[in-house]
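Archive entry. Fields below.
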Amino acid sequence: MNSLILRTTTRLLTPVIAVVAVYLLLRGHDAPGGGFIGGLVAGSVVVLRHLAYGGARDRIIPVTSGTLLGAGLVVAALVGLAGMIAGGSFLEGAVWKAAVPGVGDLKVTASLFFDTGVFLVVVGVVVGLVRYLGEERVP
Amino acid sequence: MILLPVVLAGLFALSTCTFLIARALRRDTGYVLAAAFAASAAAFAIQTGDVAGGRALEWSASWVPSLGLRFSLVLDGLALLFALIILGVGAAVMAYSARYFKPEDDTGRIYALLTAFAASMLGLVLAGDVILMYVFWELTSITSFFLIGGGGRGAAEARRAFLVTGLGGLSLLAGVLLMASVAGSTEISEMIAGATAITNSAAAPWIVVLLLIGAFTKSAQVPFHFWLPGAMVAPTPVSTYLHAATMVKAGLYLLARFTPVFGGEPLWFYPIVFVGLTTALTGAVLALKQHDLKALLAYSTVSQLGWLTALIGIGTFGAITAASVHLAAHALYKATLFMITGIIDREAGSRDIRELSGLYRAMPITAATMGVAALSMAGFPPLLGFISKEESFTAFLGAPGAEWLAPAVAGVAVVAASVTFAYGARIFDEAFTGPLRQPLYEPRISFLWPAAVTAFAGLGFGIASRAIDGLALRAATEAAPVPPEIGHIALWHGFTPALGMSLLTILGGTLLFAARAPVGGRLARVRLRSPGAVAFDRIHDLMVASGKKAAAPFLSSVPAVQFAWIFAALAAAGAGAAAFGPALPEEAPPPSEVADWFVVVLLMVVCVGIARARARLAAVALLGLTGFLVTVFYVLLGAPDLALTQVLVETLTVALVVLVFRRLPREFHPVARLRRRFAAIVAVAAGAAAFAGSYTLLGRREASEVGEYLLRAGPEDAGGNNVVNTILVDFRALDTFGEITVLAMAAVGVYVLVLHTRQTERK
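PREDICTED_STRUCTURE:
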């Protein structure tokens, strides 16, 4: 599948899919999307590039899957602890709303950060599987 | 008082930073930790005046409000006594570790675990809530497990220690939960206030039995004592700190903590005293049998723990005072002896006590330090070990309960103490007499001083016993009714019965020591296999064997064999439910539309295609197609999140499976006709069961109450309109946290499998 068409398309699609993934993550609280779906979309970039470029040389994500998995779990745990300190119980939620001039009403929830942790873990799993199964040698 | 959480959180934080510190300082990290421990110990020691005066330090914060749990810490006399031992001995052990380990050793892990253990142990004794105490209790077991088995060897011993203490931990949890349900609170102070309600309840015997199992397993009491000598495979600092000075005393702490509730109850009193004295005697005799210094000390620890258990069981004011003093004395001399053992092991390469002869000629300071500690263990004046032993004798003589009990207890105690004296004297004798048999040199003073500090602390506290008097009496006041007149602990009380018992002990011990050759020969011939260990090994092996048997079908390397069992079970469950299950509700099955059946027919066609496919890639592609067809259902039902997830997962799965399949032959292996038929029957039966289940069971009810609540509360409480997402990251966020952890573990599992496969391929 080492075709020029696929490679060119992949190069064009990579930033688009990446933006879509983040968009899905951000809007997930109110519309279809979220950390899990966003993570899978982001993971599909990695798979696509693996198919297009043959894997071993591609380092679109410059860290190991272990780093992503660990970072995701740490983020999720920290959100939980922050909720415990601020709100009184582990993973206690919070909603902040602010009106940003020129942009409109902005809403951020504590669960968005938690969802980011989910996102990172899902990306980490996909990256890991692609790298472990796809390459001749385990990194 | 903010001191308590600050020290506790500080130690946990220090534990996580230790890796980084150890990267720069390597083994010298021990000095940093020792300084932190010593500073914490000093901060606690300053509180002694207040605490001994009855003003306990308290701090609490909201923890799990929905269960009414508070993160409460209390520093009273008993807690302070333990805290000082944990931090004080901890400082010495850390300073010792800085020279025990070799400069090139990778010490980050062990220092981090030791610090985490210290923090957990401190949390255990400070916890004012039983659930909190249980959490720390288990943390000490877990850190102990990694510290025993971490060196690459000792996996079996670590597992044994963990299973025994872990089982005790679960028993403790059941006990405190029962107690909390009777008392109506998980706060220890409330439980003590409601003591009569607990002791009068029908659950009281169960509570006592469960708590005792917890305490006896942790503190290595007969018949659970066998894990402790096994734990000696750990590096010496670990043995010194966890398995002599602190962790094994958690059980004693538990007993002392709940003495105000159960003290004086026959069900509490008799078993504890009986088990304690049995352990004291068994451990002492087994210690006399050992030649390996570390094993000797391990059995000696078992024996001393039994002694302390018996004292706490007696539970009078005097007994708790004696136990408090003996706790300190034992921590000091046993820590010294372990540290010296480590030094000799490092210098001489042997721990055989018979090879220590003439030690003082080559290593005078080491020998002197060891001698002081051995004499304290033997109960020789003016060391702290003498005082605590004499206080103990007085307490044993004053044991309440049946008339025959006090003399019997005192008699057994004298025998156990005599044996202890004998092996203490034996260590002393080997070190100080005889010719030097091997070239030995005094270790550097930097290696030696921590052991010397603990040894001479035992001497100092013996002479100036008033220094710990207040704290010991305070701990006793909290646990037992205070007698009209309180004596002070001292070296000399005049000609008391206890002095007579001390003299009797020294006499008996000396005789036993003099007759060590014949006694040793006798003992060597007795092969004592602990019945507890035998039972444990049998149960353990039986469980492993039955687990293997149960897993056998799934250990096949042929996936078809594994799936056959799962699908056959599914089909059988479906048939069983149809035949014996409850009747279906009267309502009609949910309405279906033409579009639904169109998808169903397509799905069936695709499934037939998969079954008939010869090429692997074709099968995978068709399998992905079934997933996309299911997505159509989600779209039809209006579940965009599910549909999106399903599409993505199917796409990625196909791509990943292709990555694996390109290593395999293009086509499936031909399969025998009979096997194909069998597979077809199983598959059709399982499919029919799954279809029947989905068709008849789903959609028969209106939106559930929970569903209504989530739809309503999502926008209000969680600030999100997507109910799928608010469930995932708000309402059931803890579940999601668990799921992503499992996901991460699965990725690690794949990594290990791939790595393992490649390594075997290379061979």
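CURATOR_NOTE: Helices of chain A lie at 4-27, 35-53, 65-87, 110-134.
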